[in-house]
Amino acid sequence: MAKTLVQEFTKGLWEEIPPFRLVLGLCPVLAVTKTVENGIGMGVATTFVLVGSNFFVSLLRKFIPSKVRIACFIIIIATFVTLVELLMQAFTYPLFLKLGIFIPLIVVNCIVLGRSEAFAFKNGIARSLADGLGIGIGFTLALAALGAVRELLGAGTLTFWETPIQILSPTIQPFTFMIEAPGAFVCLGLMLCLMNLVESK
Amino acid sequence: MREMINMIVVLTILGAVSGGLLAATKDWTDPKIEYQQLTFVKGPAIKTILEGASNDPIVDRFKISHEGVDSSFFVGIFNGEASTVAFEGLGKGFGGDIGLMMGVNLVDDTIIGVGVTTHSETPGIGSKAKTDPSFTNQFKGMKMTAIANVDAMSGATVTSNGINGGVAAASKMYQSLKPQILEQLKAFK
User: Fold this and answer.
1) C-alpha–C-alpha distance, residues B93 and B122, integer Å
2) For residue B133, how many C-alpha atoms fall within 13 Å in the half-sphere facing its CB?
């Protein structure tokens, strides 16, 4: 059954929300979500790449021979990732310093390649744009949520625009484990569990 | 055969267009990136040294090449006169090069401040050169023409010697470049 444009867009927000439903692209999810701000920054960068690559893959899908499609996808994706990297360095340098290596690594993020291969190569431009935007925003929300939980429990703050806002009273000893790498796994597991619980109700 | 040619053509065109686009973006963002890097990497040291300057030293900068290496000079305008520059020298530390930002008043050749920008010294020992200004403050007021070694930080002899050496090397560079610096400074009023 064909979905409407709106459905293509909204499926990324819940039904197929990338890190939780597709459990794809976990490398940046686990590594950068130490603060809300990092999560949102990474999400926005990925969204930009997703929308751009979905648009061009879908636009060129009639010209790309299917034998070299992966190579073509990678060229398109890599171009957008490099664009993001340059723009971030030029305009949001402190964020770039924090995300560092994970920006170029968007190239090998399976969400981006996965959407090109599974969706944009088979669908029209408008649908591909809606799909890219939906999945991208879903990814951003997921990263922001994960970042918020980890930062709140691990440091007792929430960071927006470089300024940490103290949420928990400073008298509560923060649970530092949450902002270290293993905390990311635990947190992701708990959130997956919570989502399945909500779904099954 | 036709398919083969088709593949080659598509990949070539795609690669060429991407390359062109990226080259154009790089050209456009390069000066902005340089400015951002200066602001966030060297900026803090420059700001402390040239405190009270009425201009933005990171905008007002020029380059002079010395023995094949381009050095950036940051201009500080005090009381309406472009009398001070800050520039970076390198010292050999315990863990590699130590970047030293030095501010010099060209009128009487006095050092108005020295600050560490980049380093890979041992955290808590050599890194104190950056976090604790009392060591580098010893250079304040010294004449560029008569650099003397300052008291070392206890426990961080190699770092201290590296910084002493770096300041001495920077003073040599300064003395040989002074006419050129003065020439360039005329543009900033």
Assistant:
1) 10
2) 10
Assign residue B109 a region: left if phi > 0, alpha if psi is -120 to 50, beta otherwise? Answer: left
From chain B, pick out residues whose CB is under 8 angstroms from the CB of A75.
Answer: 11, 14-15, 18
B110-147, pLDDT tens digit by residue? 888 888 888 888 777 778 888 788 888 888 888 877 77
Structure-block tokens of residue A94: 């402190």
Query: What's the token pair of residue B189?
Result: 């009023």
How do the domains of chain A map onto residue ranges?
5-148
Neighbours of B66 (CB within 10 A): 14
* A86 at interface of B, judged by CB pairs closer than 8 A: yes
Tokens linked to A122: 């088979």
> What secondary structure letter does DSSP report for B143?
B
Amino acid letter, residue B181: I
Q: Which among B3, B32, B37 has the least Cβ separation from residue A65?
A: B3
pLDDT band at residue B23 using 50, 70 and 90 as cut-offs: very high
**Residue % of chain A over a pLDDT of 90:** 3
pLDDT tens for each residue of A12-47: 777 777 777 777 777 778 888 878 888 888 888 889
d(CA B36, CA B110): 29
A62 touches chain B (CB under 8 A): no
**Contact, B173 vs B66, CB < 8 A?**
yes
Q: ipTM score here?
A: 0.71
Sorted by sequence, the CB contacts under 8 Å of residue A15 that are 6+ apart come out as: A21
Q: Which of A60, A83, A91 sits opposite B25 (nearest CB)?
A: A83
Smallest CA–CA separation between B5 and chain A, in Å?
Answer: 10
Q: Are strands B61-66 and B110-116 parallel, antiparallel or unpaired?
A: unpaired
Which residue in chain A has the smallest CA separation from B11? A72
Q: Which pLDDT score, from 0 to 100, does residue A1 have?
A: 44
Cβ-Cβ contacts under 8 Å for B110 (sequence gap 6 or more): B104, B141, B142, B143, B144
Sign of CA dihedral A96, A99, A102, A106: negative
H-run or E-run covering A167? none
CB contact under 8 A, B18 and A75: yes
